[in-house]
Amino acid sequence: MPSVPPGGEPAPADGVLPPDALTGLGTRPFGVYVHVPFCATRCGYCDFNTYTATDLGLSSSDDPASPASWLEGLRRELDLAARVLGSPPAADTVFLGGGTPSLLGADGLTAVLDAIRATFGLAPGAEVTTEANPESTTPELLAAIADAGYTRLSLGMQSDVDHVLAVLDRRHTPGAAVSVARSALDAGMRHVNLDLIYGTPTETDDDLRRSLDAVLASGADHVSAYSLIVEDGTALARRVARGELPMPDDDVLADRYEIVDDVLSDAGFGWYEVSNWARTVGARCRHNLGYWSGGDWWGAGPGAHSHVGGVRWWNVRHPARYSKQLAAGESPAEARELLTPDDRHVEQVLLGLRTVDGLPAAVLDNAGRAAAGQAVRDGLLDDGSWARGRAVLTRPGRLLADGVAISLTG
Q1: From CA 366, how far away is CA 408, in angstroms rounded?
Q2: What pTM was computed for the model?
Q3: Among 16, 35, 43, 399, which is most exposed with the fewest C-beta within 10 angstroms?
Q4: For 202, left (φ over 0), alpha (ψ -120 to 50), or beta?
C-alpha cells in the first residue's frame, strides 16, 4: 500500500497535478533531480535509497532492476513530466544524486543529460551537477562529462584519514578525493564540492583538521559538512548497539562544527546554509538554493521526491517496481501531499532560516516575532539583522537551527 501522510492522498496513475499547482510554473526556480540508486557497496552509515548488484540479484541487463532498465524508465518518466507540466520551463538546474551516479560512466551520464535536454531543455547558464565517489571517477570520465555539459562535481570525500574512512566503510584512500577534485577542475568543471562528515567515532579534532587541510589543497570552491547521524537499521547503528563504537556526542559534534566553520572562514569561504560553505557567491549550489527558497523541481528515479506549486509527491523506491510501472504506462509516484498555506509557511521558516539571508520579519506572525526577539536576546539571532527586519542565525543559532525555526513558527 502507498505510504500516505496525514492530509495526503494516493498519487494518480496518470501523474496529473491539480490545476492550481501549475499556476506560476516558470516564475519560480525550476530544477530536475535524478536519483541514481546504484552503489558498488553500501557504506555502514547510509540509509539512502540505494542498492548494490547483490541487493538487486541482477542476472542480465534486461532485468527490470538493472541500470539499463532504470535509464529506459527515466526516459519514460521525463516524457511523463513534460506531459503533466504542459509547457515545462527549461531547467535552471539539474542534479544527479544517489547512490553513485559516476557508476553510470561517461556514456550513461551523458545519456541522462541528453534526455533532460530533449524533454525540458536547459536554461542559459544552467547549473548541471553530478555526485561521484573517488573510486568510480577517472580523468577521462570527467573530461567527457564536462564536454557533455556538466558544470559541477559533488564528490563524496567524507574524510581524508584512513581510520575514519574505515569506520564509515568508505572504499577510497586518503588523497583520492583531492586528486579527483583537481582533475575535475583541469577538465573544465566550473565548480567542485567536497562532502565531509564530522563526528565519526574514533575521529579526533586533529583528524578533522587534516581533512579540512586536504579540502583546501584540492582547489574545491564549495564544501558541504554534515554531522554523523546514526540511522536506525544501518550497519553503523548495529555496531553502536553492540558496543563496538560509541554514539557520537552532541557536544563533540558542536565543537567539530565550529572547527569546520573556523577553518573554512579563515580560508575565505562563507557559510550560506547551515551545512554549506562557498568560496564565492557564484560557487553556491543553485539547485539546493531552489529547494530552500520554495522553488519547483521534478524528482525522477526510484524514491525521488518532487514539488510543484504546493504539491509534493514521491516515487516508489525499488528500481524494479519503478521500471515496471513506467513500462506499463503508469506514473511511478507512490503518494502525494497537498501542502496547506500553514504547511508552506512552516517550510518557508524551517528552510529559509537555515540560509545566510535568513527570513524577513514580515513572514512571521506576532508569536513568531516575539520568539525571534527572545532568540536575539539569547544570542541565537543576529541583533543587527533583526533591527533591519530580518531573522538571521548567529553561529550559536546555527547549532540550534531547527529548534530556533520551530519557535518562530508560532
Answers
A1: 10
A2: 0.96
A3: 16
A4: left
Neighbours of 261 (CB within 10 A): 18
Predicted local confidence at residue 60, as pLDDT: 83
Q: What pLDDT score does 1 carry? A: 43
Q: Where are the alpha helices (DSSP H) in 315-379?
A: 319-327, 341-352, 366-377
All cell numbers assigned to 34: 535524478
For 165-320, where are the E strands, in sequence order?
191-198, 222-227, 270-273, 276-278, 296-300, 305-308, 311-315
pLDDT at residue 58 in the model: 86
CA distance 331 to 36: 18
Distance CA 208, CA 217 (A): 14
* DSSP line for 132-177: E-GGG--HHHHHHHHHHT--EEEEEEE-S-HHHHHHTT--S-TTHH
Residue 408, helix vs strand vs coil = helix
* Helices 366-377 + 401-408 axis angle, to 10: 140
DSSP H helical segments within 20-161, as ranges? Answer: 53-56, 67-85, 105-119, 139-148
Which portions of the chain are predicted below pLDDT 50?
Answer: 1-2
- Give whole-number Cα distances, 365 to 28, 269, 357, 362, 409, in Å: 24, 34, 19, 8, 8
Q: Is 406 exposed, middle or buried (0-12, 13-18, 19+ CB in 10 A)?
A: middle
Beta bridge partner(s), residue 30: 296
Q: How many helices (H) and strands (E) would you count in the chain?
A: 16, 15
| Neighbouring C-beta atoms of residue 222, cutoff 10 Å | 23
Report the distance separating Cα 201 and Cα 203, nearest Å.
6
pLDDT of 61 reads: 83
